[in-house]
Write a structure and sequence with these properties.
- It is built from 18 helices and no strands.
- The protein is mainly alpha-helical.
- α2 packs antiparallel against α3, α14 packs antiparallel against α15 and α16 runs antiparallel to α17.
- It starts with a helix and ends with a helix.
- About 0% of the residues have low confidence.
Length: about 400
Protein backbone atom coordinates (compact mmCIF):
# COMPACT_ATOMS: atom_id res chain seq x y z
CA UNK A 1 0.00 0.00 0.00
CA UNK A 2 2.71 2.51 0.92
CA UNK A 3 5.46 1.55 -1.51
CA UNK A 4 7.87 2.25 1.36
CA UNK A 5 9.10 -0.70 3.39
CA UNK A 6 10.26 1.26 6.45
CA UNK A 7 7.05 3.30 6.57
CA UNK A 8 4.98 0.13 6.32
CA UNK A 9 6.90 -1.50 9.18
CA UNK A 10 6.60 1.53 11.43
CA UNK A 11 2.87 1.92 10.82
CA UNK A 12 2.23 -1.80 11.30
CA UNK A 13 4.09 -1.66 14.64
CA UNK A 14 2.03 1.33 15.72
CA UNK A 15 -1.17 -0.51 14.80
CA UNK A 16 -0.18 -3.50 16.92
CA UNK A 17 0.74 -1.21 19.81
CA UNK A 18 -2.67 0.47 19.57
CA UNK A 19 -4.36 -2.93 19.50
CA UNK A 20 -2.57 -3.98 22.68
CA UNK A 21 -3.82 -0.82 24.31
CA UNK A 22 -7.42 -0.89 23.08
CA UNK A 23 -8.46 -4.50 22.64
CA UNK A 24 -8.18 -5.53 26.33
CA UNK A 25 -10.47 -2.57 27.12
CA UNK A 26 -12.85 -2.52 24.14
CA UNK A 27 -12.75 -6.15 23.07
CA UNK A 28 -11.24 -7.81 19.99
CA UNK A 29 -12.88 -6.54 16.78
CA UNK A 30 -14.84 -8.86 14.53
CA UNK A 31 -12.12 -8.66 11.86
CA UNK A 32 -8.79 -8.17 13.68
CA UNK A 33 -6.72 -8.21 10.49
CA UNK A 34 -8.92 -5.61 8.84
CA UNK A 35 -8.79 -3.43 11.97
CA UNK A 36 -4.99 -3.56 12.04
CA UNK A 37 -4.71 -2.87 8.32
CA UNK A 38 -6.99 0.14 8.54
CA UNK A 39 -5.21 1.63 11.55
CA UNK A 40 -1.80 1.11 9.93
CA UNK A 41 -3.01 2.63 6.66
CA UNK A 42 -4.44 5.67 8.45
CA UNK A 43 -1.10 6.16 10.24
CA UNK A 44 0.65 5.99 6.86
CA UNK A 45 -1.76 8.57 5.43
CA UNK A 46 -1.04 10.95 8.31
CA UNK A 47 2.71 10.59 7.92
CA UNK A 48 2.68 11.03 4.15
CA UNK A 49 0.53 14.15 4.41
CA UNK A 50 2.85 15.70 6.96
CA UNK A 51 6.05 14.66 5.21
CA UNK A 52 5.87 16.50 1.89
CA UNK A 53 3.73 17.98 -0.83
CA UNK A 54 5.66 16.32 -3.63
CA UNK A 55 3.49 14.98 -6.41
CA UNK A 56 4.74 11.43 -5.89
CA UNK A 57 3.81 11.50 -2.23
CA UNK A 58 0.43 13.02 -2.99
CA UNK A 59 -0.14 10.18 -5.42
CA UNK A 60 0.65 7.72 -2.64
CA UNK A 61 -1.80 9.50 -0.37
CA UNK A 62 -4.46 9.28 -3.06
CA UNK A 63 -3.79 5.59 -3.52
CA UNK A 64 -4.00 4.91 0.19
CA UNK A 65 -7.13 7.00 0.55
CA UNK A 66 -9.08 5.03 -2.04
CA UNK A 67 -11.24 2.50 -0.29
CA UNK A 68 -10.25 3.63 3.19
CA UNK A 69 -13.34 3.06 5.25
CA UNK A 70 -14.45 1.55 8.48
CA UNK A 71 -12.13 -1.12 9.82
CA UNK A 72 -14.87 -3.71 9.83
CA UNK A 73 -15.53 -3.13 6.12
CA UNK A 74 -11.98 -3.73 4.86
CA UNK A 75 -11.80 -6.97 2.91
CA UNK A 76 -8.83 -9.28 2.78
CA UNK A 77 -6.34 -8.61 -0.03
CA UNK A 78 -7.34 -10.58 -3.12
CA UNK A 79 -5.39 -13.83 -3.20
CA UNK A 80 -5.37 -16.44 -5.94
CA UNK A 81 -2.03 -17.96 -4.96
CA UNK A 82 -3.51 -21.14 -3.53
CA UNK A 83 -1.08 -20.91 -0.60
CA UNK A 84 -3.08 -21.89 2.50
CA UNK A 85 -0.81 -20.39 5.16
CA UNK A 86 -0.41 -16.68 5.97
CA UNK A 87 3.32 -16.76 6.68
CA UNK A 88 4.17 -18.91 3.68
CA UNK A 89 2.02 -16.70 1.44
CA UNK A 90 3.92 -13.64 2.69
CA UNK A 91 7.22 -15.40 2.05
CA UNK A 92 6.26 -15.94 -1.58
CA UNK A 93 5.25 -12.29 -1.72
CA UNK A 94 8.53 -11.13 -0.20
CA UNK A 95 10.73 -13.24 -2.50
CA UNK A 96 10.12 -10.90 -5.43
CA UNK A 97 12.13 -11.79 -8.57
CA UNK A 98 12.97 -8.12 -9.20
CA UNK A 99 15.45 -8.41 -6.31
CA UNK A 100 18.63 -10.54 -6.36
CA UNK A 101 18.10 -13.93 -4.69
CA UNK A 102 20.31 -13.06 -1.71
CA UNK A 103 18.36 -9.84 -1.11
CA UNK A 104 15.05 -11.71 -1.33
CA UNK A 105 16.16 -14.26 1.23
CA UNK A 106 17.84 -11.81 3.61
CA UNK A 107 14.87 -9.44 3.61
CA UNK A 108 12.43 -12.29 4.19
CA UNK A 109 14.48 -13.74 7.05
CA UNK A 110 14.65 -10.33 8.68
CA UNK A 111 11.02 -9.27 8.30
CA UNK A 112 8.97 -12.47 8.23
CA UNK A 113 11.08 -15.14 9.93
CA UNK A 114 11.93 -13.07 12.98
CA UNK A 115 15.73 -13.26 12.71
CA UNK A 116 17.80 -10.29 13.82
CA UNK A 117 20.12 -8.52 11.40
CA UNK A 118 23.06 -10.14 13.22
CA UNK A 119 21.56 -13.61 12.75
CA UNK A 120 20.87 -12.96 9.07
CA UNK A 121 24.45 -11.72 8.68
CA UNK A 122 25.83 -14.92 10.20
CA UNK A 123 23.64 -16.99 7.88
CA UNK A 124 25.37 -15.31 4.95
CA UNK A 125 28.82 -15.26 6.61
CA UNK A 126 29.14 -11.47 6.50
CA UNK A 127 29.56 -8.78 9.15
CA UNK A 128 26.41 -7.29 10.67
CA UNK A 129 27.04 -3.75 9.28
CA UNK A 130 27.47 -5.25 5.81
CA UNK A 131 24.14 -7.05 6.04
CA UNK A 132 22.44 -3.94 7.44
CA UNK A 133 23.58 -2.00 4.37
CA UNK A 134 22.35 -4.73 2.04
CA UNK A 135 18.93 -4.69 3.68
CA UNK A 136 18.74 -0.91 3.36
CA UNK A 137 19.69 -1.15 -0.33
CA UNK A 138 17.03 -3.81 -0.92
CA UNK A 139 14.35 -1.68 0.73
CA UNK A 140 15.54 1.33 -1.26
CA UNK A 141 15.26 -0.57 -4.54
CA UNK A 142 11.71 -1.62 -3.66
CA UNK A 143 10.80 2.01 -2.98
CA UNK A 144 12.58 3.68 -5.89
CA UNK A 145 11.76 1.06 -8.51
CA UNK A 146 8.14 0.87 -7.38
CA UNK A 147 8.31 -2.91 -7.04
CA UNK A 148 4.72 -4.06 -6.40
CA UNK A 149 4.50 -6.25 -3.33
CA UNK A 150 1.35 -8.29 -3.91
CA UNK A 151 0.54 -11.92 -3.23
CA UNK A 152 1.59 -13.66 -6.47
CA UNK A 153 -0.94 -15.81 -8.35
CA UNK A 154 -0.35 -19.53 -8.45
CA UNK A 155 1.31 -19.57 -11.88
CA UNK A 156 4.07 -17.23 -10.62
CA UNK A 157 4.96 -19.27 -7.53
CA UNK A 158 7.56 -21.51 -9.26
CA UNK A 159 9.69 -18.45 -10.08
CA UNK A 160 9.88 -17.64 -6.37
CA UNK A 161 10.29 -21.14 -4.99
CA UNK A 162 14.11 -21.06 -4.82
CA UNK A 163 13.99 -18.02 -2.56
CA UNK A 164 11.34 -19.50 -0.28
CA UNK A 165 13.23 -22.79 0.01
CA UNK A 166 16.38 -20.89 0.96
CA UNK A 167 14.48 -18.94 3.61
CA UNK A 168 13.13 -22.12 5.20
CA UNK A 169 16.55 -23.78 5.02
CA UNK A 170 18.40 -20.88 6.68
CA UNK A 171 15.67 -20.46 9.28
CA UNK A 172 16.15 -24.12 10.22
CA UNK A 173 19.92 -23.70 10.34
CA UNK A 174 19.59 -20.88 12.88
CA UNK A 175 17.38 -23.13 14.99
CA UNK A 176 19.58 -26.21 14.57
CA UNK A 177 22.71 -24.42 15.83
CA UNK A 178 21.79 -21.05 17.30
CA UNK A 179 24.42 -18.55 16.22
CA UNK A 180 24.48 -16.80 19.61
CA UNK A 181 23.12 -17.04 23.12
CA UNK A 182 22.52 -19.75 25.70
CA UNK A 183 20.71 -22.60 23.89
CA UNK A 184 22.39 -24.66 21.20
CA UNK A 185 19.03 -25.55 19.64
CA UNK A 186 16.04 -23.25 19.11
CA UNK A 187 13.17 -25.69 18.72
CA UNK A 188 10.73 -22.92 17.87
CA UNK A 189 12.65 -22.20 14.67
CA UNK A 190 13.27 -25.83 13.70
CA UNK A 191 9.61 -26.75 14.25
CA UNK A 192 8.39 -23.78 12.23
CA UNK A 193 10.80 -24.62 9.40
CA UNK A 194 9.56 -28.20 9.25
CA UNK A 195 5.95 -26.98 9.27
CA UNK A 196 6.63 -24.64 6.36
CA UNK A 197 8.51 -27.36 4.47
CA UNK A 198 5.55 -29.71 4.84
CA UNK A 199 3.25 -27.03 3.44
CA UNK A 200 5.58 -26.52 0.48
CA UNK A 201 5.57 -30.24 -0.32
CA UNK A 202 1.77 -30.33 -0.14
CA UNK A 203 1.54 -27.23 -2.32
CA UNK A 204 4.14 -28.41 -4.88
CA UNK A 205 4.15 -32.23 -4.92
CA UNK A 206 6.19 -32.28 -8.14
CA UNK A 207 8.92 -29.96 -6.78
CA UNK A 208 11.78 -32.34 -6.01
CA UNK A 209 13.80 -29.85 -4.01
CA UNK A 210 10.85 -29.11 -1.71
CA UNK A 211 10.66 -32.80 -0.80
CA UNK A 212 14.45 -32.90 -0.56
CA UNK A 213 14.44 -29.97 1.84
CA UNK A 214 11.75 -31.55 4.02
CA UNK A 215 13.74 -34.80 4.07
CA UNK A 216 16.88 -32.92 5.09
CA UNK A 217 15.16 -31.06 7.91
CA UNK A 218 13.50 -34.19 9.29
CA UNK A 219 16.72 -36.20 9.21
CA UNK A 220 18.68 -33.43 10.90
CA UNK A 221 15.99 -32.75 13.49
CA UNK A 222 15.80 -36.45 14.38
CA UNK A 223 19.04 -36.10 16.38
CA UNK A 224 17.84 -33.13 18.45
CA UNK A 225 17.38 -34.97 21.78
CA UNK A 226 20.93 -36.35 21.66
CA UNK A 227 22.75 -33.16 20.65
CA UNK A 228 22.85 -31.59 24.11
CA UNK A 229 23.31 -33.13 27.55
CA UNK A 230 21.37 -32.42 30.74
CA UNK A 231 23.50 -29.32 31.35
CA UNK A 232 22.75 -27.95 27.88
CA UNK A 233 26.25 -28.66 26.63
CA UNK A 234 26.99 -29.77 23.10
CA UNK A 235 27.43 -33.50 22.40
CA UNK A 236 29.39 -34.25 19.23
CA UNK A 237 27.95 -36.63 16.64
CA UNK A 238 30.38 -39.42 17.45
CA UNK A 239 29.47 -39.26 21.16
CA UNK A 240 25.68 -39.05 20.81
CA UNK A 241 23.39 -41.68 22.30
CA UNK A 242 21.73 -42.93 19.13
CA UNK A 243 18.91 -44.54 21.05
CA UNK A 244 17.63 -40.99 21.60
CA UNK A 245 17.32 -40.33 17.87
CA UNK A 246 13.74 -40.02 16.64
CA UNK A 247 13.22 -43.10 14.46
CA UNK A 248 9.83 -41.91 13.19
CA UNK A 249 11.38 -38.69 11.90
CA UNK A 250 14.21 -40.66 10.29
CA UNK A 251 11.75 -42.94 8.51
CA UNK A 252 9.61 -40.04 7.32
CA UNK A 253 12.74 -38.25 6.14
CA UNK A 254 13.84 -41.31 4.18
CA UNK A 255 10.42 -41.60 2.55
CA UNK A 256 10.47 -37.95 1.53
CA UNK A 257 13.98 -38.38 0.14
CA UNK A 258 12.94 -41.40 -1.92
CA UNK A 259 9.98 -39.45 -3.29
CA UNK A 260 12.25 -36.54 -4.20
CA UNK A 261 14.85 -38.72 -5.92
CA UNK A 262 12.12 -40.55 -7.86
CA UNK A 263 11.28 -37.29 -9.63
CA UNK A 264 14.68 -37.43 -11.33
CA UNK A 265 15.68 -33.81 -10.75
CA UNK A 266 18.59 -33.86 -8.26
CA UNK A 267 19.46 -30.68 -6.40
CA UNK A 268 21.47 -29.37 -3.44
CA UNK A 269 18.83 -30.10 -0.81
CA UNK A 270 18.47 -33.68 -2.00
CA UNK A 271 22.24 -34.17 -1.86
CA UNK A 272 22.35 -32.76 1.66
CA UNK A 273 19.49 -35.06 2.62
CA UNK A 274 21.45 -38.02 1.28
CA UNK A 275 24.37 -37.00 3.49
CA UNK A 276 22.06 -36.66 6.50
CA UNK A 277 20.61 -40.09 5.72
CA UNK A 278 24.11 -41.60 5.83
CA UNK A 279 24.44 -40.35 9.40
CA UNK A 280 20.89 -41.19 10.45
CA UNK A 281 21.06 -44.79 9.25
CA UNK A 282 24.52 -45.65 10.63
CA UNK A 283 24.24 -47.99 13.62
CA UNK A 284 27.19 -46.30 15.31
CA UNK A 285 29.86 -43.69 14.60
CA UNK A 286 32.31 -46.29 13.34
CA UNK A 287 29.73 -47.60 10.86
CA UNK A 288 29.25 -44.24 9.13
CA UNK A 289 29.95 -44.43 5.40
CA UNK A 290 32.40 -41.52 5.33
CA UNK A 291 33.77 -42.28 1.83
CA UNK A 292 30.25 -41.93 0.42
CA UNK A 293 29.68 -38.73 2.40
CA UNK A 294 32.90 -37.30 0.97
CA UNK A 295 31.74 -38.16 -2.57
CA UNK A 296 28.35 -36.56 -1.94
CA UNK A 297 30.01 -33.38 -0.69
CA UNK A 298 32.14 -33.33 -3.83
CA UNK A 299 28.97 -33.52 -5.94
CA UNK A 300 27.38 -30.81 -3.82
CA UNK A 301 30.41 -28.57 -4.28
CA UNK A 302 30.03 -28.90 -8.05
CA UNK A 303 26.29 -28.21 -7.97
CA UNK A 304 26.28 -25.44 -5.36
CA UNK A 305 29.83 -24.15 -4.77
CA UNK A 306 30.36 -22.83 -1.27
CA UNK A 307 33.32 -22.56 1.13
CA UNK A 308 31.17 -24.12 3.87
CA UNK A 309 30.52 -27.12 1.63
CA UNK A 310 34.26 -27.38 1.03
CA UNK A 311 34.88 -27.30 4.78
CA UNK A 312 32.38 -30.10 5.32
CA UNK A 313 33.99 -32.08 2.51
CA UNK A 314 37.35 -31.67 4.24
CA UNK A 315 35.88 -33.16 7.42
CA UNK A 316 34.46 -36.11 5.48
CA UNK A 317 37.83 -36.67 3.78
CA UNK A 318 39.53 -36.53 7.17
CA UNK A 319 37.17 -39.17 8.53
CA UNK A 320 37.59 -41.45 5.52
CA UNK A 321 41.26 -40.93 4.59
CA UNK A 322 42.76 -39.64 7.82
CA UNK A 323 43.18 -36.23 9.52
CA UNK A 324 46.29 -35.36 7.51
CA UNK A 325 44.35 -35.52 4.23
CA UNK A 326 41.59 -33.39 5.70
CA UNK A 327 44.05 -30.84 7.07
CA UNK A 328 45.50 -30.26 3.60
CA UNK A 329 42.05 -29.28 2.35
CA UNK A 330 41.33 -27.11 5.40
CA UNK A 331 44.61 -25.23 5.05
CA UNK A 332 43.98 -24.67 1.34
CA UNK A 333 40.53 -23.31 2.19
CA UNK A 334 41.98 -21.03 4.86
CA UNK A 335 44.45 -19.62 2.32
CA UNK A 336 41.56 -18.39 0.15
CA UNK A 337 40.30 -16.14 2.94
CA UNK A 338 36.69 -17.00 2.09
CA UNK A 339 35.97 -18.18 5.63
CA UNK A 340 37.86 -15.53 7.54
CA UNK A 341 35.99 -14.90 10.78
CA UNK A 342 34.13 -18.22 10.63
CA UNK A 343 34.78 -20.00 13.92
CA UNK A 344 34.15 -23.49 12.54
CA UNK A 345 37.12 -23.19 10.19
CA UNK A 346 39.47 -22.67 13.13
CA UNK A 347 37.61 -25.27 15.22
CA UNK A 348 37.88 -27.87 12.45
CA UNK A 349 41.58 -27.18 11.99
CA UNK A 350 42.09 -27.47 15.74
CA UNK A 351 40.32 -30.83 15.86
CA UNK A 352 42.39 -32.26 13.00
CA UNK A 353 45.62 -31.04 14.58
CA UNK A 354 44.54 -32.60 17.89
CA UNK A 355 43.91 -35.92 16.17
CA UNK A 356 47.36 -35.71 14.62
CA UNK A 357 48.93 -35.17 18.03
CA UNK A 358 50.09 -31.63 17.21
CA UNK A 359 48.83 -30.27 20.52
CA UNK A 360 50.54 -26.88 20.51
CA UNK A 361 49.16 -25.92 17.08
CA UNK A 362 45.77 -27.35 18.00
CA UNK A 363 45.61 -25.21 21.14
CA UNK A 364 46.35 -22.09 19.12
CA UNK A 365 43.56 -22.90 16.66
CA UNK A 366 41.15 -23.55 19.54
CA UNK A 367 42.00 -20.11 20.91
CA UNK A 368 41.30 -18.57 17.49
CA UNK A 369 37.94 -20.32 17.36
CA UNK A 370 37.08 -19.11 20.87
CA UNK A 371 37.70 -15.52 19.81
CA UNK A 372 35.12 -15.90 17.05
CA UNK A 373 32.38 -18.11 18.50
CA UNK A 374 29.17 -16.45 19.74
CA UNK A 375 27.18 -19.47 20.92
CA UNK A 376 27.54 -20.32 24.63
CA UNK A 377 27.32 -24.15 24.26
CA UNK A 378 29.86 -24.12 21.43
CA UNK A 379 32.14 -21.87 23.47
CA UNK A 380 32.03 -24.31 26.41
CA UNK A 381 32.77 -27.23 24.07
CA UNK A 382 35.77 -25.44 22.57
CA UNK A 383 37.00 -24.42 26.03
CA UNK A 384 36.95 -28.07 27.16
CA UNK A 385 38.81 -29.14 24.04
CA UNK A 386 41.41 -26.43 24.62
CA UNK A 387 41.90 -27.58 28.22
CA UNK A 388 42.29 -31.19 27.09
CA UNK A 389 44.73 -30.24 24.35
CA UNK A 390 46.77 -27.88 26.54
CA UNK A 391 47.06 -30.63 29.13
CA UNK A 392 48.77 -32.82 26.56
CA UNK A 393 50.91 -30.08 25.03
Amino acid sequence: MTGDWDLAEECAQEAFAQALDRWPRDGVPRSPGAWLTTVARNRALDRLRRRTNEKTKLAQVAGLSRGAGDAEEVDQVYDDSGVPDDRLRLMFTCCHPALPLEAQVALTLRTLAGLTTAEVARAFLVEEPTMAKRLVRAKGKIRHAGIPYRVPPAHLLPGRTAGVLAVVYLLFNEGYVASAGAPLVRSDLTSESIRLARLLVALMPEEAEAAGLLALLLLQDSRRAARVDAAGDQVTLEDQDRSLWDREEIEEGRQQLEAALALGRPGPYQLQALIAACHATATDAAGTDWPRIARLYEQLAQLAPSPVVELNRAVAVAMSEGPAAGLVLVDALADTGELDGYHLLAATRADLLRRLGRSGEAAQSYREALELVTSDPERRHLTRRLAETSGHA
